[in-house]
Amino acid sequence: MKLKAMRLRANMPSSSSKVLASVKDGSGRKLASVSVLPVLVALLVAVVLYSVTIGRYDLSVRDVGYILIDNVHPLVVPYWDPVQEVVVEQVRLPRIMAAVIIGFGLSVSGAALQGLFRNPLVDPGIIGVTSGAGFGGTLAILLGWQGYALLTMAFLFGIGSVFLVKLLSTVRGRTSMLTLVLAGVVISAFFSAAISIAKLLADPFQKLPAITYWLMGSIASTNYLDVLLLAVAVGPSAIAIYLLRFQINILSLGEEKARALGTKVVLVQWIILIASALISAGVVASSGIIGWVGLVVPHIARAFVGADHRRILPVAGVIGAIYLLLVDDLARTVTTAEIPLGIITALIGVPVFAVILRRLHAKGGWSSD
Question: Cα-flanking dihedrals φ and ψ of residue 62, to 5°?
């Protein structure tokens, strides 16, 4: 194995050498990554507890603790008002759980796709699933469908867009990553135009505002069934991506070297693409379009733990959960009218990503070769 690794490094171009060096960068980075994840998990728990207490109906940590303990071990004398229990269990906890799942899923899929395409500008929307699911939900609202009919339409169109991308990008049984990206751009443009047509045809007093608000992303009306459906879409997909963490590391060196090392390149690529599509379709179907999470968060995780996807994936997931939970806290507390999540993630994500991209370019961390 040592001889094979030495030969691989000797024949590797400069850009791939940087990737391998960052993947296997010594014990110092490894110890740092081991300590980062528990700290982030503890921070996530603290942010969850904080998020339950804030809002238009303020609660104390003690009252929240009693309410949660009562579900596991019923207390003889209740120490809280019944209204407080409704606020905690029926209003805040479902949306907090949804924010955690959405942030985790989008960040994991974004990190996996950036490694797969070897491109820091890639996010889950690159494969067309976001626009496809957005059109599905828009069409459902236009037809007067609400609730789980809307969720089903958005999810089906999101998954269907991936198969359209595959159909366009496959020639004589072979698919290249460049063709896949171009096909994703084409499908995204098509569904974006279709959304514009649907807005043009929508009732300007009822359906058009509903379509516009839904597309901006919100988890205000999330319930426990929505959380369950999100978990079903995100959970298995994120696990599948994590199980392929070693293969993603190898693919980040290039397809030719991955094949030389025995990786089933096409199979791994499509498993990651389908898993990412399931995550994105589930998120858009349940909460609308929430952008910039899967694009920015993996860069922050990479700054903590390097380029090894064994560490990036869980760290990015937890950072994404914390980030989106804090964004949702802002959305529901800054003003009297709730701000859609997609607006805040864009306002924060654009300048942060601009700074990250400038630093990466200055350091030569990403090149076009």
Answer: -65, -45
Dig out the tokens for 369 from the structure: 């070769």
Strand locations in the chain, DSSP E?
170-171, 174-175
Residue 262: phi, psi to the nearest 5? 90, 10
What gap in Å lies between CA 268 and CA 18, rounded to an integer? 23
Q: Which amino acid is present at 45?
A: V
| pTM: predicted TM-score of the whole model, two decimal places | 0.87
Q: Which helix (H) or strand (E) holds 6?
A: helix 2-10
Residue with token string 């990015």: 316
- Selection from 123, 125, 127, 94 nearest residue 110 by Cα: 123
Amino acid 123 reads: D
Residues forming a β-bridge with 170? 175
Stretch (H or E) spanning 175: strand 174-175
* 347 close to 296: Cβ distance less than 8 angstroms: no
Q: Which pair of tokens denotes residue 234? A: 């995100």
140 in Cβ contact with 158 (< 8 Å): no
Q: Are 80 and 66 in contact (CB under 8 A)?
A: yes
C-alpha span between 240 and 271 (Å, rounded): 8
Q: Which H or E run contains 362?
A: helix 341-363
pLDDT in tens, 93-146: 999 999 999 999 999 999 999 998 888 888 888 888 999 999 999 999 999 998
Burial grade of 158 (CB within 10 A; 0-12, 13-18, 19 or more)? buried
Q: How far apart are CA 272 and CA 286, in angstroms?
A: 21
Burial 109-135 (b: 16+ CB within 10 A, else e): bbbbbbbbbbebebbbbbbbbbbbbbb
Q: How many CB atoms within 10 Å of residue 31? A: 10
